[in-house]
Amino acid sequence: MLKKNSGKINIDILVMSVLILGCAYFFVLDRKEDSRAPAVQDEPQSVDVIQSASQSRVDKITQAMHRGVSAIKSVLYGKSLPIENKAEAEADGVNKIQLLSLQAKQQKWKSKRGYFYLPDYQRYEGLNVSQLKKKVNTGDILAMSMLIRRYKKAGYKSLVKNMVLHSAAHGATAELTILVKEYGERALNASLSTKVRLNSLNDMLAFAELAAIRGDKKGIEIGLSMLDKNDLELTRLKFKRSFARSWDMYYYILGKNTAYNLTAFNNTADALTISEVDKKLQTLPNPHGWAKKHIGTFEYK
């Protein structure tokens, strides 16, 4: 009697085991199907939002790209998606992956060109001029940018120009475009003499074209917006002189670049930067025909 009951118990245990394993199998299968559905955000991030992301986030995205598409999706998406929307989510994921890829390249280009953010400058706030110069001697373009700001504050105009060209020899172009804006504002200042305003206008044109030769069209964009407000007499001769001067400065910084044995110039920009600037240039008036050779003539990196 005991043996019969024992056999029945063993059968019951076997049946229960099969049922439990079956449930577990379907649970795991269901979870696997859910995991295949990509997660999405409520709204896609705008270019501006992604552009303001920190360098660490860009690095994470770049590293994820090297690991493959599935790893990138883990960075992009935040919550589960119904399986019936899988195809739509996949297409949306590709678009976001492409955008983030472009943004990562743009951030890398900007960093090399000296386009820094406030947190970057805050790292060097406590350094004095002597300490900044030591960093400048190592080729630190952030230190150069910080030193330029110190020189501007102290009113050392010649030192500002020299350091801007020094940073340009090391590959930076951001300081060139900042000078374009500053010279443009002086050219528009009616309280200054006509001679000073004309000199400032010539400086603006020359530095804008120098930056453009190096593949940074931001100076052209700023220059066109300034020319649209300008009331000074402009001639083709002035444009030719500024163009010739920009090339003189280019060969000067190129010579310094070679003498310092630095990385050779790459006079191109990333695709996203080119696209953004190109759209703006097409909307700006250019009745004088200045810098036409730079407008719409871009090189992609």
Total beta strand runs: 0
- Average pLDDT, rounded to a whole number, is 77
Taken in chain order, the helices and strands follow as HHHHHHHHHHHHHH
* Spatial shape: globular
Biggest β-sheet description: none
Measured by DSSP, the beta-strand proportion falls in under 5%
Question: How many helices in DSSP terms?
Answer: 14
Distance between the termini: 86 Å
Estimate percent helicity.
Answer: 55-70%
Low-confidence stretches: 1-16, 18-55, 57-86
Number of domains: 3
Radius of gyration: 30 Å
Write up this protein.
The radius of gyration is 30 Å and the shape is globular. It has helices at 2-36, 47-51, 55-67, 69-76, 86-112, 118-122, 129-136, 141-154, 157-169, 174-187, 194-213, 218-227, 236-259, 271-283. 28% of the residues are buried. It starts with a helix and ends in an 18-residue tail after the last helix. It is an all-alpha fold and 301 residues long. The chain has 14 helices and no strands. 69% of the residues lie in helices and 0% in strands. The chain has three domains: 1-36; 39-112, no CATH class; 173-294, no CATH class. Helix 10 packs antiparallel against helix 11 and helix 10 runs parallel beside helix 12.
Structural topology:
Blueprint: H1 2-36, H2 47-51, H3 55-67, H4 69-76, H5 86-112, H6 118-122, H7 129-136, H8 141-154, H9 157-169, H10 174-187, H11 194-213, H12 218-227, H13 236-259, H14 271-283
Helix pairs in contact: 3-4, 3-5, 7-8, 8-9, 9-13, 10-11, 10-12, 11-12, 11-13
Notable characteristics:
single chain; 301 residues; mainly alpha; 3 domains; disordered N terminus
